[in-house]
Design goal:
The protein is of the alpha+beta class. Helix content is 29%, strand content 26%.
Length: 234
Amino acid sequence: MVNKNFNYSVSVDCVIFGYDDTNLKVLLIKRGVNPYNNYWALPGDLVHPKEGIDDAVDRVLLDLTGLDNIYTQQVKTFGDVGRHPLGRVFTISHYSLMKIDQHELSPLNINNSPSSYAAEAKWHDVQRIGELAFDHNKIFASCKAHLVQSVQNKPVGFELLPEMFTLSQLQNLYEVILERKFDKRNFRKKINSMKLLIDTGKNQKSVSHRPAKLFQFDKDKYLKLKRSGYNFEI
């Protein structure tokens, strides 16, 4: 039996993490309308009546940030009473992890989209996001926890590294996502135990310090670990 008084909306909110070879960042938009005018927020919007969830995510990212063809994963649904000041809204959170220099934000989409409420889109250090609109701090924290759990079980973020990389670059990737420092010897022992790396026989060039060895991932082993997972504990 359908309750004729049943009234609610569904939205999507996107936590887009970016890696710039040094730091982990999150993409936020500055709202240009009420509620929460001038607050930073996660890219998100209501799902249109005849729109699928994945299509809504694609539209939101393109309209509000200019990003296109971004792979995202659903994380959790948030539906606390009062989470939106204009009515009952359930939101489905999504997250993604990308290499920042491979994706360019497009101000043209932000300013010209008729459905856009974003005044600006900008990458923020994950440690300095401050108070966000709505319950977006809570959504961000949930997706960050999901990311941390993921990288400890599967090689989620390895695509963020160059084709050939040093062990220090690999260690830094883990450290910025997990927000902890690793002992160099223990980290390398753990990585070597996975038998995931191939020594290219090449060294870094044009560096001011002693050139380090360059490695690549064993693609077959990499794909196997993505399917089966592993336990990354040091």
